[in-house]
């Protein structure tokens, strides 16, 4: 699972002193939180060397460049100086060094390709490894121009991107033989679905189908294409607000409360990921039907 650490106060995220203190904590093998763990040396990206000081200097420079680039421009300036991503795939994974390197670089390439970053692995004896990735809150734009906010939440739909990379990492680990790895690695989305199903069974109350499940239920066998998608959405009462080559913005028939008003729910989906989720939902429908037929088989006359 990949997540953006959100428990820290704004004061901490705006403080270089808090960052330095946290870096000391991550490297302290004697801390009670790290009992029995192996703490690997940190690795920096976009810095002069791999020392914690070099990373802190990089964060300071990113902040200075950002302020200089905003000089004379309207709008609010972000005050955060750093952020943290945390990745772990649960117990019993026992990553190899090759796997750790690939996972680390894949996450940074996806979420902070031009940012100053520092990666630190904590290895637990039960195969439950934590990857801490500290990132400067501002970075160079991909075209090398002015500084911009790293991982702007409302612009890049972080949750969907986290889920996509998380699924890719789970598939990568499951495709690699490892004698210590005795269980299948599950993505955070898969674990969430299983927990949701368990709650549904316990409460004896069916949960509404997800967006991709609704689409798949209208076309359980035939592949859903870009040409057919608008027709299926129309059947579901979903209105297309904006469609591009890469994404689609839709309005759902159900409402949500916004202050004293009721407004229709909206959502924006990257097309590539949406079609992948639809295909996965179709496969789940097919597997469910197969299991029903297997159970019902002996009772058929």
| SSE series | EHHEEHEHEEEEHHHHHEEEH
Structural class based on helices, strands and sheet pairing: alpha+beta
Percentage of residues in DSSP E strands: 15-25%
Number of strands: 11
Largest sheet: 6 strands, antiparallel
- Global Rg: 23 Å
The geometry reads as: globular
Mean pLDDT level: 86
- Number of continuous helical runs: 10
Q: Span between N and C termini?
A: 47 Å
Unreliable sequence segments: none
The number of domains: 2
Oligomer state equals: single chain
> CATH architecture of the largest domain, please?
2-Layer Sandwich
Share of residues in helices: 40-55%
Please give the CATH class of the largest domain. Alpha Beta
CATH third-tier fold name of the largest domain: BirA Bifunctional Protein, domain 2
How would you describe this structure to a colleague?
The structure is a single chain. This protein has 301 residues and is α+β, with helices and mostly antiparallel strands. The chain folds into 2 domains: 2-161, BirA Bifunctional Protein, domain 2 (2-Layer Sandwich); 208-296, no CATH class. The protein contains 10 helices and 11 strands. It has helices spanning 10-13, 16-26, 52-70, 97-111, 153-156, 158-174, 188-203, 211-218, 229-235, 271-296, and strands at residues 2-4, 38-39, 43-45, 82-87, 117-123, 130-136, 138-140, 147-149, 239-243, 247-258, 261-270. Strands 1, 2, 3, 4, 5 and 6 form a 6-stranded antiparallel β-sheet that branches. Strands 9-10-11 form a 3-stranded antiparallel β-sheet. A two-stranded antiparallel ribbon has the order 7-8. A hairpin with a 3-residue loop joins strand 9 (239-243) and strand 10. Helix 2 packs antiparallel against helix 3 (52-70) and helix 8 packs across helix 10 (271-296). The chain is globular, with a radius of gyration of 23 Å. 23% of the residues are buried. The mean pLDDT is 86.
């Amino acid at each position: 699972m990949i997540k953006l650490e959100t428990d820290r106060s704004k004061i901490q995220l705006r403080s270089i002193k808090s960052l330095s203190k946290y870096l000391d904590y991550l490297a302290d093998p004697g801390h009670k939180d790290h009992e029995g763990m192996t703490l690997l040396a940190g690795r920096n990206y976009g810095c002069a060397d791999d020392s914690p000081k070099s990373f802190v200097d990089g964060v300071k420079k990113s902040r200075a460049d950002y302020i200089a680039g905003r000089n004379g421009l309207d709008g609010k300036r972000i005050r955060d100086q750093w952020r943290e991503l945390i990745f772990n795939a649960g117990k019993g994974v026992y990553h190899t060094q090759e796997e750790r390197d690939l996972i680390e670089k894949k996450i940074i390439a996806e979420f902070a390709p031009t940012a100053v970053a520092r990666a630190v692995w904590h290895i637990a004896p039960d195969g439950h490894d934590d990857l801490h990735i500290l990132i400067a809150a501002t970075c160079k734009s991909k075209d090398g121009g002015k500084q911009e906010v790293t991982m702007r939440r409302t612009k890049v739909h972080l949750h969907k991107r986290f889920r996509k990379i998380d699924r890719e990492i789970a598939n990568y680990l499951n495709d690699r033989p490892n004698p210590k790895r005795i269980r299948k690695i599950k993505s955070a989305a898969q674990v969430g679905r299983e927990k949701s199903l368990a709650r549904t069974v316990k409460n004896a109350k069916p949960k509404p189908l997800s967006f991709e499940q609704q689409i798949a239920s209208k076309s359980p066998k035939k592949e859903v294409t870009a040409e057919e998608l608008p027709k299926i959405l129309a059947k579901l009462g979903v209105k297309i607000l904006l469609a591009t080559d890469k994404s689609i913005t839709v309005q759902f028939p159900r409402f949500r409360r916004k202050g004293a008003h009721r407004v229709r729910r909206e959502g924006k989906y990257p097309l590539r990921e949406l079609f992948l989720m639809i295909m996965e939902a179709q496969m789940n429908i097919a597997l469910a039907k197969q299991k029903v037929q297997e159970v019902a088989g002996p009772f058929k006359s």
